[in-house]
Write the structure tokens for this entry.
Amino acid sequence: MIEKLILLSRNTEIDVVSLRMMSAYANAELDSDVYLKNMFARLNTLSANLTTAINRSNVESILAKYDKERDKQIRSLAYLLNGLKHHPMPNVKEPALEVDHVFNKYGFSVTTKSYATKSSLIVSLLNDFKDSTLQHAINHLTGCAQIIAALETAQIEFEKSRVAYETEKAKVSTRASATSIKKEVVKLIKEKIVVYMRAMEIVEELKYSPFAITLNEIIADNNEVVKKRSEKTKKTTTKAMDNSPSKQQGLCFIVTISM
């Protein structure tokens, strides 16, 4: 009997299961079964949407990564200038004040802005730093030019990722998340395909059994991975609870009472 797919599977795992199932169906020579054909046509659509949603999620993560890098470099520059403008040596303090005067037009508040607004402000800041009258001051401050260069790199990478994100987002008209699509895929497999194949394997064993065996192997492989991960998580959680301060205090209390 074909196993039922575990809902706790990760989005990417369900994506792989659906792709393997469709590949198996393509080689099963069951096109004459219209009902099964329609179910796999639906699975094909959902799987494509799931893949797109996963890709979009991945791009969103990369986008957030480079946004954090932009924030990091802005903070680094602020801390550097804040320290150098209080330097006792005039040949350090004066150029630091000069650069800080430009930076303060934007300041820390840049990091709290939306992606689009932040990009606009950072590009403007970088352009201000490229002013020839400011280059001597920047180059005179150790580390300043390097931080500005790192900020520019982070901004360029962010914009590249943003283009990729917009491209992925445009591939599907809905904004359904990968998790919500995954649930639809699992429901279709568990409640439609598996149930139907279980019945047809009994009715026409010779025709459907080879495909049913393949589907079971695909689902069983996935379920085994999920079960092992769940067991590992359970053991880690139990160990953490056993080592928690409250548990240790409780044990100490019991020992004290016993004595």
Remarks:
- The chain has nine helices and no strands.
- The chain has a mean pLDDT of 88.
- Residues 34-84 form the longest helix (51 residues).
- The radius of gyration is 29 Å.
